[in-house]
Amino acid sequence: MLALELHVPPFPLLTTVGYVLWPPGVMHAKRQFDVFDLIICTKGTLYMEENEVQYDVRQGEMLILEPGKTHLGYRPTETETEVYWIHFQYATSSQPKLVEKQNWQQPLLETTNQDTEPHPATIHIPKFAALDLRVIVPLLTEMLQLHSMLTSSRSFELHILFGQILIQLQNGMRTGSSQARSHLLGEKVASYLTSRLEFPFDSEQMERDLHYHFDYLSRCLKHYLGMSPLKFRHHLQIERAKRLLTHSELPLVKIGEQCGFHDNNYFFRLFKRQTSFTPGEYRKRYQAFR
């Protein structure tokens, strides 16, 4: 699916939100904007053209019009047509790219609970797609209410609601993709492994609990996170060990046990391989109290 790819920061910022109910025979005006225009049709059909590309935006569909391009209606509405719109800015030196979004793998970012810099993020918004009006319309209604009596604090709330709209649009792309089932099961595998760190790794038990063959579960997690189940488990174990080393005075042996390691030598070797520190060296360097 064709999508706008936005790298965050900076965040896209809402400039306005609006609503109109057009009778039959109305045609959208011709214009150029220096902002993005997100159009959502909740009734009827809006006939739009952008740089000579025509779109029939029907009930339950959305279209993003891009800044600097010429937009106009290419034919009048035929029936009563209900439309919401959101204008937003994305202040970067270069325009966001339109990409063919097919891969929804979500590689883990390197994080600690002592980070002092924000982590990069990516938002994908479909160019032209169907959407779930049951989820979107209540958000739009709340946004219009806030916008009708706008204050500085309400403006912040409006931006938060706009962020929720973008999340819903991105999630809609993901759940509607050919990888939707694999992605959902990958999330389930990740949650399962996270909840069982203190138990030994058991592929047969995982098959019984999740009702799929282990090879298929492994492929789904690989598509979702780019990791095998065992590699993801090791990642979780080391991250938990880091937190305990930083914020507790538990002996190293106890920390290893709480992270699912029943062989201290293996715990020390794996920790050293993934962090370049032994557990003791890591505690000395990063412990949050004295």
Task: Walk me through the topology.
Blueprint: E1 2-8, E2 13-22, E3 31-32, E4 36-43, E5 45-50, E6 53-58, E7 61-65, E8 70-73, E9 81-89, E10 97-100, E11 121-126, E12 128-130, H1 133-148, H2 152-175, H3 180-195, H4 203-210, H5 214-225, H6 229-247, H7 252-258, H8 264-275, H9 279-286
Antiparallel strand pairs: 1-10, 1-11, 2-9, 3-8, 4-7, 4-9, 5-6, 5-8, 7-12
Helix pairs in contact: 1-2, 3-5, 3-6, 6-9
Structural class: alpha+beta
Based on DSSP secondary structure assignment, what is the total number of beta strands? 12
Q: Provide a count of the helices.
A: 9
Biggest sheet strand line-up: 2-9-4-7-12
How would a textbook summarize the main sheet? Answer: 5 strands, antiparallel
Q: List the secondary-structure elements in sequence, H or E.
A: EEEEEEEEEEEEHHHHHHHHH
Radius of gyration, whole Å: 25 Å
Average pLDDT for all residues: 92
Descriptive key words:
four-stranded antiparallel sheet, alpha+beta, 24% strand, 290 residues
